[in-house]
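Example record used in the benchmark description.
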Amino acid sequence: MESCILLHNHLYQSSEILIDNIKKLLDKLHISIVRTESLTLDDKFLPFIEPISYFKPIITLLHKAHEEGQRVLICDTQSLLVVAKLLKKLYENSEFREAMNEACACNIDILNLENSFVFAPEIVFDAIKVAEIKQRRWESFKCAFVFDRELEEYIKESQILLRAESITGLKILPFFKNSYAYLLQSNPELAYKMAAMDYYEMVDCGIDFIITPNIGNFELMDKHTKALQDISGRDTAEIPLLFVPQVILALFMDTKAEFLGFDSHKIRPQML
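Model output (structure tokens):
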């Protein structure tokens, strides 16, 4: 299997839980990581940041990965959306493309950029087929899987949820929602109000936990759980959020809650 460059989106402190677990999972699956690159990415920033300086490090990373015969491994959906919007802008705007060529001091090949990254679940679900795991270990559990609204078509076409159900045994309820974590700095009360509506909508479906590949969702719904509870007037929030690699790592029989970093969650999962 080809080696990868792990992209660490350090937008929120919660990303440390995701990056720690994805490293552990990749090690279990014998997927080689040559290095980790850190960026701060969220497409909600784009209207407020000069696009050339914002996109330059992303193009530089993807271009270098292609030259080295590697791929950038993206494990959060905020990063995935930024890269998708970058490629769309390169295709549709020739002036922007020329400006990025000059800024990056390279001749950008969009097709090469497209082939130089992969969303982590795609390679994880392929590699897990030959791993020694307890298939369908989550058979008795029901969860909500909350994705960014803009990714609904991609998620359905890629059949990520069907593959996840097949491997884990989970009963998955998909939710496609906007993330409001970006409002934490400018309008936290609105962020809490909107997140509480989404959180309790999922909770009211009788789920055991929530899975998210969006670090903003985790930051808002886990780290600020008391604020969500207070603003909604609901009882104590007890339904935990998990990142995808935590759910997959739990399929390995030697996995313990401490190994997954459950003690770093504000709403501590009790499943293991």
